[in-house]
Write a structure and sequence with these properties.
Blueprint: E1 2-8, H1 12-22, H2 29-37, H3 40-47, E2 63-68, H4 71-80, E3 85-90, E4 93-98, H5 100-107, H6 113-125, H7 127-134
Antiparallel strand pairs: 1-2, 2-4, 3-4
Helix pairs in contact: 1-2, 1-3, 5-6, 6-7
């Protein structure tokens, strides 16, 4: 199974940091988001403290991949991990979509080519959060 990340929600780490701060701040989420967009280093600090006990902070985003796989491989993913969306594009090609929470839950305790491709996607889209995963905090 081969995955190629083709699209994702912009500023995913800023969204995650906004979700984290919204639970502890009286400010409106839109105000927090606007402030954080101007302070990228602050986003890294906040996201670097994330713990996945309140997983919904990782759900407000989308990652999309083109997948080259057999129908059986795709079915295995869907049956094992219910929160992926998959559409067939043609023989052996699929569009697969999920949020960061689903990806983090998938890679926890998993190995293999599929897991490695998901980790590479996380490293690209949410580098600070990916660092938390490597340190065993997610």
């Amino acid at each position: 199974m081969k995955l190629k990340l083709v699209a994702h929600t912009p500023d995913v780490e800023t969204l995650i940091a906004t979700a984290m701060l919204t639970t502890t701040s009286g400010a409106k989420p839109s105000t927090i988001f606007s402030r954080l967009l101007k302070k990228g280093e602050k986003v890294g600090e906040i996201v670097g403290r994330v713990e996945a006990q309140h997983g919904s902070i990782l759900e407000h985003n989308r990652l999309d991949w083109i997948v080259e796989a057999t129908e059986r491989e795709v079915l295995d993913v869907l049956l094992d991990r219910r929160f992926y969306s998959v559409s067939e594009l043609g023989t052996g090609r699929w569009l697969m979509s999920a949020n960061v929470r689903t990806v983090v839950e998938t890679i926890s305790g998993s190995e293999g080519e599929f897991t490695a491709a998901l980790i590479a996607s996380l490293t690209e889209v949410v580098p600070n959060l990916s660092g938390c995963h490597r340190r065993g905090r997610l």
